[in-house]
Specification:
137 residues, Tetrahydropterin Synthase, Chain A, five-stranded mixed sheet, binds nickel (II) ion
Length: 137
């Protein structure tokens, strides 16, 4: 089994806020991240596909093709957007890195043309990264 990874970056804003809770509870849970106007991050996304190299191509999946898929399915929808308001597939979701990674998985897993989606890593800040491998559903 070979694991190949494509990296992509995007910038987006979000607000961590649970509409089912009071302002006070949100403030307690999310602190500065609950600020009413949101704040931004420069996200780094790494998508790993696992598989065996094809006999004809030697590729698990052509990384140029993975680049195109990431642009079309993810980056065009989230780059320079407000994740709470502008992104259909995040509607009703608190846009933590965890929830964003799960949402990306659901979109990408069915459209990977060869190999299978193995992991999604999403770095929100230099010190904070989440990784999702699709176990929880
Ligand atoms: Ni944040």
């Amino acid at each position: 089994m070979i694991y190949i990874t494509r990296r992509a970056t995007f910038s987006a804003s979000h607000r961590l806020f649970n509409p089912e809770l009071s302002e006070e509870e949100n403030k307690k849970l999310f602190d500065k991240c609950a600020g009413p106007n949101g704040h931004g991050h420069n996200y780094v996304l790494e998508v790993t596909v696992a598989g065996e190299p094809g006999k004809k191509t030697g590729y698990v999946l052509d990384l140029k093709e993975l680049k195109r898929i990431l642009s079309r399915e993810i980056l065009e929808k989230v780059d320079h957007k407000h994740l709470n308001h502008d992104v259909d597939f995040l509607r009703g979701v608190i846009p933590t890195a965890e929830n964003i990674a799960v949402a990306f998985w659901k979109i990408l897993a069915p459209v990977i043309p060869s190999g299978r989606l193995h992991a999604i890593r999403l770095q929100e800040t230099e010190n904070n990264t989440v990784e999702y491998r699709g176990e929880i559903e």
